[in-house]
Amino acid sequence: MVEYAWLVPVFPAIGALINGLFGKKYLRDQSHIIAVTAVMASLFISIIVFADIALNPIAHEIKLFEWIVSDNFSAYVGLLIDPLTAIMIMVVTGVGLLIHIYSIGYMHGDEGYYRFFTYLNLFMFFMLILVMGGNYLLMFVGWEGVGLCSYLLIGFWYQKKSASDAGRKAFIVNRIGDAGFILGIFLIFGSFGTLDYSFVFANTHLINTKIATIITLCLFIGAMGKSAQIPLYVWLPDAMEGPTPVSALIHAATMVTAGVYMVVRSNILFSMAPFSLEVVAVVGAITAIFAASIGLVQTDIKKVLAYSTVSQLGYMFLACGVGAYVSGVFHLFTHAFFKGLLFLGAGSVIHALSGEQDIRKMGALARKIPATYKTFLIGTIAIAGIPPLAGFWSKDEILTSAFAGGHYLIWAIGLATALMTSFYMFRLLFLTFYGSSRVDHEVEHHIHESPHNMTVPLMILAGFSLLIGMVVGFPPESGWIHRFLSSVVGSAGGEVHEGAGHHLSLGLELGLMALSIGVALSGLALAYSFYIKNPELPKRLAARVQGLHQALYNKYWVDEIYSVVIVQPILMISQFLWTFDQWVVDGLVNASGWITILESKISEMFDIYVVDGTVNGVSDTLDFGARGLRRLQTGAIQNYMLAMGLGIAILTVIFIF
Amino acid sequence: MTNVYGFPILSLIAYIPLIGCFILLFIDKDNHKKIMYTAFGISIVDMVISFLLLPGFESSNVNMQFIEKASWIPTLGVEYFFGIDGISLLLILMTTILSAIAILSSFAAIHERVKEYYVSILFLETGMLGVFMAMDLFLFYIFWEIMLVPMYFLIGIWGGGRRLYSAIKFFLYTLFGSLFMLLGILTLYFLNSNPAYGTGEFTFNLVELYKMHLPLLPFQFWLFLAFFLGFAIKVPMFPFHTWLPDAHTDAPTAGSVLLAGVLLKMGTYGFIRFSLPLFPLASMYFVPFMAALAIIGIIYGALVCLAQKDVKRLIAYSSVSHLGFVMLGMFALNPQGITGSVLQMVNHGISTGALFLIVGIIYERRHTRMIADFGGLSNRMPIFAAIFAITMFSSIGLPGLNGFVGEFLILVGAFQYNKIYAAIAVLGIILGAAYMLWLYQRMMFGTLDNPENKNLPDMNRREIAYMIPLIIFMFWIGLYPKPFIKIMEPAIINIVQKVNPGWAQKSKTMTIEEAGIPKGDAIPLVPASSSTERQKPMPHSGE
After folding, report:
1. Number of Cα atoms under 13 Å in the Cβ half of residue A262
2. Contact at CB, B339 and A570, closer than 8 angstroms
3. Is the peptide bond before B218 cis (omega within 30 degrees of 0)?
4. For tag attachment on chain A, is the N or C end more exposed, with fewer CB atoms within 10 Å?
5. How far apart are CA B53 and CA B87, in angstroms?
């Protein structure tokens, strides 16, 4: 059945086409029927493909048609279906379907309803191309395509300037990453003569460490953009301007994990380049703790989750960087469920509060919206890393791998991040659902639980967040997911990557596990004492370390710094060049025009006074002469006689002498 | 007249618009409707006939096809010589399509001197087609110059703003460059008559002139520069570009479309048809110079775009940037670069042509081109918004649309020539996204707060009708560019072999030794088979 895998992306494409062309006029508030059906069909095929691959985990290459070909360059539109792809399409179509269904309720009554589902389907198409494509170029197509949809969906409420600004920012920052990615693609083509995964990964002997390092660093720049890593993470928090289902699907569960997918897909190249891995690990770790620290003090429910996403993505890269690719994918997998859940839960809260996103104006919602509360609670426990929920298993694996690989500093950063994660998530939970209500008065009596098409997806995701970690990841380091992905990771090159080779004693492993549980619980306890037991404490603490608090609250002023260091200078250069163009480049052209005109004026003068002057001069001379001579011809015979007489006299004189 | 149709089809295509001019002369000058529809009909007929070139064109044949040859001025050796290869074929088709679209787009915009207007456009079409068909330098030069006249009138009479200034600037600037080219042409003519360098005949026949063997110094060097001035001004390359924003901004919509879509391509076409094959040594020699100018153009044009307040001027400057890509690809002197370059010529014609049409649509409604006068139009004009968005993404090279394929191939080519150049050029793509998205945001997003925009009607059927073909091409080239690439491939390989004979050798050694192809596997010109063979099944431990 794998040969029908190409249908998976086709369905959403058809859905997008139908809604795009006919949605406005005919489908309107029924647009979701097309969109949800398309994704359902996709999911159905995905399950079959997944089952096929699960039973027989080998890679299938499906070549559809030749796309770009020129001389020795050729790229196919073709798919590579292997275990990694199988997992990714399950995440994308599975979580995607739930979020599509959720959107029916969430977007109900929006005037851009059809547009929303068009974009969402289009996103599914590109995301599936990204993870199913059989070569780097196709991955790039999906990569830019999801960027497009992200742009369209962030700026979905385009009448709001902040929304369209955020969309544009996302696209441009991503383009910076994409520039790196495409240079990596050129290097791969230059080194291998093709972009097909199958050839590249089977022939790594064609490149040396240096080339591999450059290639992987270029690719990783792309990953930093798409997966919001330092220094290109700035677009993701702003992306929360989009409708909440978008934040859940694109900016938490799927698109932003594309960078992780890319690194794992290219793991053979990365494993050849220890320096690149080092970079990946360090960037991941720094991003993880940096974003988590910002998340500690944010007051917008979605912003907290956004920084949390950045931080968790950092975790995934940290895993890849220490060679624990499978653990990275594992975390990607569990994160998709619990972060999708949390975002949808946040959406449900916002929906209940008529659009309020500020957690300072929430509180005591647990009893008013119980389904949302319970599922949100599960999501929080899952992300905090408390067993046996999903997040614990994947996060613990990552930390263990970092430790086992001897990356103690990175491990410590990871552990500190885990503490912060647990803290800010429980802080969020407590401020939203516990304590006393701080909800605005007008909003208060409108509070209502969301409709079933919103709460059911929450429950399903909560179910996954509860169990999925245990199901696929137990026992740690050798659970099903490790066996399933073993053919994808580090096999083709035949090298054993670091991290996987190390094995800790059972005692140490259990000790580490206990430590990470302890850290998660301390976060919970800390949040409890801060926000339930002692609600005045945060304020006092903030006043005590005001500088630090301000830095965190203002997100370290990174946006402002970028504006001053990058954006403003570019705009200034642009203004300068525009002036330069008008006055210097064009000035020269105009000057040459003026000089020509001036020259022609001079010529004209010359012409009038010199050339024509000469002509006139001649005629004037003649005229003058003629006037003079005319006096000779008076017609009076006596004058002639006189002249003759004079003439004869003169001639006589001449002859004689 | 050797072609499958048995009649001189190229001349027919070239002169139908000219015949149309005469037909228009006999129509009452106040009967605007009849004039418009006749002109449009003629352009459509011409377009349909030009499509007949496709089935008759042998895409595997590297020689000029549909050749028409007759002695014209025998005492000088001037011939009437038409012929096309894949490159000119694509440009001819683009010209006939864009001309028809340009005429259709003028229906609502032109109310004065209607007859003269359409006569000018049709006359211009003949000139443009002639340039792409002429294989005799003398004939080429005639078409090249004659084309300036109708464009001069189009800008000067039906334009806006400082139209006279712009028209004269356009005319004189181009003429200035052309004169150097004329000098070059005459020099070639006389050099060829010298058996030491050429065939020993007095001829302007390009195919004969291709056989010349000129030393780099002094001949190729100076001749390249002479032709360079002619073509670089037309492209336009930095720093010869300043006529372009003025001409584009002040021209009527159709004029801008043809100017951007076709006239600019004459410069790039000139390089590819004349400079590269006639002066291969000099072309090689000047690669760093040309690439540097191209890259400056890419970045400079994009940065200047960011500072624009006038939509049309912004798009005009974006052409400087895009044409920089075309030149960069061309002077990578390898098949990918040149293929991308030619494809990007077509792409730019489509995308930028469409952008000018879009500006025209909004200008006809509001009579302003200032970005600040707009904002929030999306809600009011959804169809317009969608088409504008697709066009914008085509222009910034989003995969799946045409611009990406061209830019990608150009960069692949440039990268093989020089990695740093490609890396800098990639910055242009980032800036491209920046200025276009910003433009779109300022015009289409936000709230519609300017009361004058409150009642803007969306696109009407006629406007949709002329945008649709362009949109189709954007998707077609983006999704399945192979037919287009196949058409031009032999011609490009031909040029590469002439100008960069080391390439084939180099790529061969690269693929054999570095990519691990078994030896003895010949590298054919059409590489599809070799690349499929190269793909080995992926060994997996699971297997």
Report:
1. 39
2. no
3. yes
4. C
5. 13
**pLDDT digits 0-9 by tens, A75-107:** 888 888 988 999 999 999 999 999 999 999 888
Return the structure tokens found at B455.
Answer: 């009642």
For the question of whether the overall pTM of this predicted structure is more than 0.90, the answer is: no
Looking at residue B538, the DSSP 8-state letter turns out to be P
Tokens of A170: 């996302």
Strand, coil or helix: A445: coil
Other Cβ atoms closer than 10 A to A503: 10
C-alpha span between A287 and A277 (Å, rounded)? 15
Round to whole Å and give the CA distance between A284 and A259: 11
Q: How far is CA A192 from CA A61, A267, A493, B313, in A?
A: 18, 16, 15, 43
Nearest to B445 among A24, A164, A486 (CB): A164
Contact A158 B538 (CB under 8 A): no
Give the pairing of strands B65-73 and A73-81. Answer: unpaired
Cα–Cα nearest to A541, from A556, A525, A554, A530: A530
Answer whether A581 sits within 8 Å of B540, measured CB to CB. no
* Cα–Cα–Cα angle for B170, B174, B180, rounded to 5 degrees: 160
Q: Report which of B476, B490, B493 is spatially closest to residue B94, judged by C-alpha positions.
A: B476
Residue in B239, B514, B540 closest to A193 by CB: B514
Please report residues of A whose CB lies closer than 8 A to that of B412: 70, 73, 186, 189
On whether the CB atoms of residues B387 and A147 are closer than 8 A, the answer is no
Neighbours of A488 (CB within 10 A): 27
Q: At B274, give phi and psi (nearest 5°).
A: -110, -60
Distance of CA B138 to the CA centre of its chain: 22
Q: Which residues make Cβ contacts (< 8 Å) with residue A308, sequence separation at least 6?
A: A291, A292, A295, A339, A342, A383, A421, A424, A425
With CA atoms as reference, report the closest residue to A168 among B443, B300, B205. Answer: B443
Amino acid at A641: M
Block residue for tokens 């677009």: A235
Q: What is the 3-class SS of B222-283, one letter each residue?
A: HHHHHHHHHHHHHCCCCCCCCHHHHHHHHCCHHHHHHHHHHHHHHHHHHHHHHHHHHCHHHH
Task: Give per-residue pLDDT as tens, A25-41.
Answer: 777 788 888 899 999 99
Residues of A in contact with B538 (CB under 8 A): 59, 61, 80, 197-199, 201-202, 492
Tell me the sheet residues that pair with A643.
Answer: none
Domain limits of chain B? 9-535
| CA-wise closest residue to A118 among A20, A243, A258, A224 | A20
If one counts every other C-beta atom within 10 angstroms of the C-beta of residue B285, the result is 16
Chain A interface includes B446 (CB < 8 A): yes
CB neighbourhood size of A222 (10 A)? 28
Burial tier of A206 (Cβ tally within 10 Å: 0-12, 13-18, 19+): middle
Walk along chain B (543 residues) in steps of 10 and give the mean pLDDT of each run.
75 93 90 91 94 88 87 89 92 95 90 90 94 93 92 91 89 90 92 86 88 87 93 90 90 92 93 92 92 93 91 92 94 91 94 94 89 87 91 92 92 89 90 91 87 86 93 93 90 88 61 40 37 40 37
To which residue do tokens 């336009």 refer?
Answer: B236
Say which residues have a Cβ less than 8 Å from residue B285's Cβ, sequence separation at least 6: B216, B220, B221, B224
Per-residue pLDDT tens over the stretch B260-280: 999 999 999 999 999 999 999
For all residues of chain A together, what is the average pLDDT? Answer: 87
**Per-residue burial over A416-447, b = 16 or more CB atoms within 10 Å of its CB, e = otherwise:** bbbbbbbbbbbbbbbbbbbbeeebeeeeeeeb
pLDDT digits (tens, 9 = 90+) for A103-147: 998 888 888 888 899 999 999 999 999 999 989 999 999 999 999
